[in-house]
Amino acid sequence: MSLLQLDQATIRFGGLVAVNSVSFTINKGDLFGLIGPNGAGKTTCFNLITGVYKPTSGEIRFDGRNITGTPANRIARLGIARTFQNIRLFKALSVLENVVVGGFLRHRTTLGSALGYFPSAIKETEELKHEAMELLKILNLDQVANVRSADLSYGMQRRLEIARAMATKPQLLLLDEPAAGMNPFEKEELNGMVKKIRDEHGMTVLLIEHDMRFVMSLCERIVVLDHGEEIAQGPPSAIRNDPKVIAAYLGEAV
Amino acid sequence: MFWIKRLLSIILAVAGCYAVDRIATGSLDSYGQRLIILAGLYVTLAVSLNLINGITGQFSIGHAAFYQVGAYLTGYLSVTFYAKSSLQGIPWLVAMVLAGGVFAAIAGLVVGLPSLRLRGDYLAIVTLGFGEIIRILVQNNAKLGGSYGLNVAPKFQSIWLVLLLAVVCIAVCRNLLKTAHGLPFLSVREDEVASLAMGVNVTKVKVSAFIIGSAFAGAAGALLAHYEGFITPQTFRMDVSFIILTMVVLGGTGSITGSALAAVFLSYLPEYLRGLKAAGGGPLTVSGAGVIAALLATAFAVALIKRIMDAGLGSPTRRGLTYLGILVGGIVAQFVLSMGLSAIKPLAAAQIEAGQLRMVIFAVTLIVLMLLRPQGVFAHHEFSWDFVKRLFGAKNVKTTEIAA
């Protein structure tokens, strides 16, 4: 069953067509890769899906609903969460607090009950903290729960971004270069973690990554973008040998 | 059980404020009482601005405008309706405080809307402009007394209500930060794009911050109007906004404790300096040589401390002792320098009243603090009993409670 569907999605910034009628469909339970050279429009694609940008034309459907032009915070509530290429943690907040912000979209109490410090708000806060702590345990971050997130190591910050996104309990998780800047050991660990997220938490994963070995070993289906256009789509084995993909990455023969 | 505890703490807060009121009216002259009232109002103003500026990160420098909206509208209501009203005395004042809060909250909503599209210095300019617009509107409105000012009758002097308002303001901000509802406010300050991606309704958060923050400023305005009995647009000049902002920055942006203590300190410091007396009883005077020597010694000591801080040499204890040494050295240097400078005739002859130097001292204090501790005295820290326990040597105090 299709979960996310991009239909001829296009966005122009002035004269630049950053994403040019890109279409692909992600099914529930997919581990989907989005690759392409620098400036191919991968992150812009993420920004279209998560509502940071509104497409100039085309349509995006999520879970049977048209979400084209829906504000970003509404899209998060519908069940799409993301991480950022250039880590965007809430730096002054602790690791635990970062994750609680992610879980906060399920809050039921009102702002008034928090200002009055009523039992309902206190109880909810405890519940959200508890949930966040469970999530931190899964991602091996529970030891640093009270550390300021800016003080974490780079690899831990990337993991925290994933934890924070998972805290929103999304159906679809978008990971923007999750392995960037990680050492081979951390990448191996991340590989297992992403598989676990899909298998045990039932989240569909769409990820952007530059490390070919990482993508090929992890993803079951891949879309390749170049200059904003989709040049190939298929399983890793087909992508690896696609002449267009090789040309895009290595340059064409003169 | 919870509600019994809550009721008790409310009764305790009211009783505490009332006790301070009784003691102050019994033992202080009207000037001393005035200082308490102004400090209380400034605490409310600084803590409420801290919600907008420090916690939510919306750089607003027009807080005096909300203060003014509350003061003028409730002042006008009192003049027009008090005589015919069935509410008399303190209940009327309480009603006015609530009305001031509501009026200012509406104004806060109006100013909050541009904050959805503007950030940083652009928003600062809009809020500054809003403050001036309100002041000039009042200045040109004959019904509100124009630039002559408005006589507010009846007058009320109730220290306890001023203190209670400050306590409520602090409690509300603390409650917000103690629950999960406070986190979206902080996350909007940290990163708007990431907040949106986490499903935070950034619009609602920003507007809520403006509404709550300005409501408290408006309530404080109502108390000011009914205490002074006379308000003019000059009471709410731009520099009032800046003093409130200074309190927030000095205390540590985002820290409620810092804002409140800085408000007390900065509202009291100029008055203390104004009242300095010489041993004989006349106004305290200093020579020009002394002033220049003091400034030079301060600059030198600050430069030294700053260098040692940046280098971060030695253990904290040793650094602390070094700072103390520099401080003592600075005071000694000031005397030596001042004797040396006295050789220059015009400098020795110039006599300056200490009271006149209060704004200089005020400014120098701020400059020194900003140089040595740019994050504010309390930075982002809050007062907590755990901290007090650790201060008195208790070990193994858990730093934060986690529900796990």
Structure commentary:
The complex is a heterodimer of chains A (254) and B (404). With 254 residues, chain A is α/β, with parallel strands linked by helices. Chain A folds into two domains: 1-79 and 170-254, 3-Layer(aba) Sandwich (Rossmann fold), CATH 3.40.50.300; 89-168, no CATH class. Chain A has helices at 42-49, 72-78, 95-103, 111-115, 119-138, 154-166, 184-201, 212-218, 236-241, 243-250; strands at 2-13, 16-27, 31-35, 57-62, 65-66, 80-82, 172-176, 204-208, 221-226, 229-234. Chain A has a six-stranded mixed sheet, with helices on both faces. In chain A, strands 2-1-4-5 form a four-stranded antiparallel sheet, with helices on one face. The longest helix of chain A has 20 residues, at 119-138. Chain A starts with a strand and ends with a helix. The longest helix of chain B is centred in the middle third of the chain and has 27 residues, at 202-228. With 404 residues, chain B is an all-alpha fold. In chain B, the strands form two sheets. A two-stranded antiparallel ribbon of chain B has the order 1-2. A two-stranded antiparallel sheet of chain B has the order 3-4. Chain B has 16 helices and four strands. In chain B, helix 2 (30-55) packs across helix 10 (238-251). In chain B, 71% of the residues lie in helices and 2% in strands. The two termini of chain B are 24 Å apart. Chain B folds into two domains: 2-274, Orthogonal Bundle (ABC transporter involved in vitamin B12 uptake, BtuC); 285-374, no CATH class. At the A-B interface, helix 2, helix 3, helix 4 and helix 5 of A face helix 6, helix 7, helix 8 and helix 9 of B.
